[in-house]
Amino acid sequence: MAYNEKLTDRIRESLVAVKKVEEKNMFGGVCFMVDGKMCIGVVGDEMMCRIDPSMDESVLKKKGCRQMDFTGKPMKGYVFVNGEGMKTKDAFEYWINLCLEFNSRARASKKKPKKN
Predict the structure, then answer these.
(1) What's the first-to-final CA gap in the chain, in angstroms?
(2) Which of 5, 14, 69, 107 is the most buried (most CB within 10 A)?
(3) Measured in whole angstroms, how far is the alpha carbon of residue 40 from the centre of its chain?
């Protein structure tokens, strides 16, 4: 599955000033890891946002936002945002800032032992 390169570039540009950013190909898209933690990604034409799980209910009321259900079940603290939800610069920056703000408090997932 291809992912939206323009959206990826837009996110990449917004993270230029952020330290410790790493791009990884994941789930058929790309994920931006910040300080070793999943932060923002692109799947198809949507932005995947890792946010404070306590904000799920309020952000799901926003235009273009839906619960991330990549595995077939809703995942708390993760949402998808489509083009309608990030049409303006302010709306786009809202999502970026929300992800970065939570990233500073988020825990990194446990590292899986490497197979030999």
Answers:
(1) 29
(2) 14
(3) 2
Structural domain includes residue 49: yes
Q: What is the pLDDT of residues 18-67, one digit of tens each?
A: 999 999 998 789 999 999 999 999 999 999 999 999 999 999 999 999 99
Can you list the alpha helix ranges (DSSP code H) found in the chain? Answer: 5-14, 56-59, 89-103
CB–CB of 11/42 below 8 Å? yes
The token duo for 39 is: 């932060």
Query: Can you tell me the distance from the alpha carbon of 99 to that of 97, in angstroms, rounded to the nearest whole number?
Result: 5
93 C-beta neighbours (distance < 10 Å), count? 12
Phi, psi of 93 (to 5 degrees): -65, -30
Percent helix, strand and coil across the chain, each to the nearest 5: 30, 25, 40
